Amino acid sequence: MMNHTLKNQCKVSPGTIISGKWHSNNYTIIKELGFGANGVVYLAKHKNTHVALKMSDNGMSITSEVNVLKSFAKVQGSTLGPSLLDVDDWQSPRSRISFYVMEYIQGPDLLSFIREKGKSWSTVLFIQLLKDLETLHENGWVFGDLKPENLIVTGPPSKIRCIDVGGTTIKGRAIKEFTEFYDRGYWGLGSRKADSSYDLFAVAMIMINTAYPKRFTKTIGGIQQLKEAIRQKPELTKYEKIILRALQGQYSSAKEMREDLLERMVEKRADSKPLQPQAINNPGSNQVKNGAAKSQKNVSRLTYRKKKKKSAWLEFFIIAVLLGAFYAWYTFDKLL
Fold this sequence. Notes:
This protein is α+β, with helices and mostly antiparallel strands. It has 2 domains: 100 residues, Phosphorylase Kinase, domain 1 (2-Layer Sandwich), CATH 3.30.200.20; 175 residues, Orthogonal Bundle (Transferase(Phosphotransferase), domain 1), CATH 1.10.510. The protein is built from 12 helices and 10 strands. The longest helix is centred in the last third of the chain and has 24 residues. The two termini are 45 Å apart. The C terminus is likely disordered.
């Protein structure tokens, strides 16, 4: 949490006009969106457009975050962080304050979205998140302070976006910002060195968080407490192996975790298919048909595992179909 002195210096009232010293752009403050260790974020208006404006008296922090957003902009097709719109200084009545302006990403945070739309959306959104993290990691960055409050779901179509890049750190350095519940160092399961597995630990903790919206406190800590928490929730036991691998740093990349999650989702959908009517009407044939079904399922799973490194277009197609189905169901339900 940021110190009170810093927040007081960056505290402005709704209606305040922030005028850029160098670019002469004006931004009218609407309300505070949040604050962290290095500044305050406001919803502002510029030429009839809503934007997010972050200000801080720590110029180095602003420069670091701006560099992160510029790096994101260079990654073709990446929508991980908000777009950078402006960087400037404002001469307030008290002092000169640095600020930058970024795209205002609207939508509920991850946990609010899942609570409203249903937990069936969770896996699809985590697959999207891991895809974006893969791109981030390949470009030499680790998000660091990954938590549900920093994940916004926009749409339709539903798309997960990361906000607040203040904790984003160059690989190999010490993590700049973290939240204890999602930090592997807090649980005694690793260091705070910025590497891919640090973010994947946080993803696993967010998955646990979906089943424990109010979180839980650390008691004995370590993998044992987290394993027990997983096994108390049926929605987590389905993904227990994946979550435990991420918690213990056994994934070498976000891509590897995403592939396991996608495979488990396909298997779960196959397992949930109801029996065919003819099998129910003809009990005498159940044993043979069940045996054939099991055999066919085993062959399908073996084939899937052999083709684990499937092409990008097939993965995109599966996710697109699922998103389309979920959205169609939601629209139909609203009409009723």
